[in-house]
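Write out the 3D structure for:
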Amino acid sequence: MPSLWADSLDEHRELVLGKVLAAYEALRAEVGVEAVTLTAVAQRAGIARSALYNYVKDKHGLVLLHAERTMSGAEQQLQAGLAGVDGAAARLRRFIAMNMAMYAAVPAAADDLMPMLDAEEQQRMRDALAPIRAMLHEIVADGVASGDFRGRTEDLVELLSATIGGYRLPVASGRVDPQRAAEVVGEVLLAGLQHAALPAEED
C-alpha cells in the first residue's frame, strides 16, 4: 500500500489533490492549457499517473476541478471583502475592484475554457460561477429596492455580469491594468445604474 502523506486518508487525499492542482496551474502558466498533459501533471506533483485517476478521469476533469476550486476560493474572498460594506453602490464598487484584482492574480483567468468543453462540462463551469453571480444579484436587488439603482434587477445583473466578465481576458493577460479597469468600470456602470431611464422593477 502506498505511504500516506498525512495522518488520515482524507487529509492525504486533500494534500495530494492540492499538489495536483498546483502542478496543473504551474504547467498551464508555462505551456498553456492545451499543451498540459496528465503525465506531466503527475510528474510535477510527484505521484504516479495511475494515482492521478483517483482524482480526475481525464484532462477535462482536471480543468473543471481546478476551475471549481478557483471559483470557490473567489467566492470566499468576495464574501470576506464585502462583509461590513454598507450601501449597494459601495458594495458594487468593491465587487468590481475585487473581481479585477482576482483576474490579474490568477494567470489561468486569461484562458477561455468554454470552447474546449462539451455541453455538460460547460454547465458545470456555469454552476461553479453561480454563487458569485448570486452575490452580484443580491447587490443589484438591494440597490433597486432602495432606489439607488434604476431598472429591473435581472436586466441590470445581465449588463453588469457581461461588462465585468468582459474584462477577464484583458486584465488577466496584462493588457489592462486591474486598478484602472476597476475605476473605469465602476464609474461608468454606477452612473448608468443611478441615472438610466429604464423601466422600474415590476411588482
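DSSP finds nine helices and no strands in the chain.
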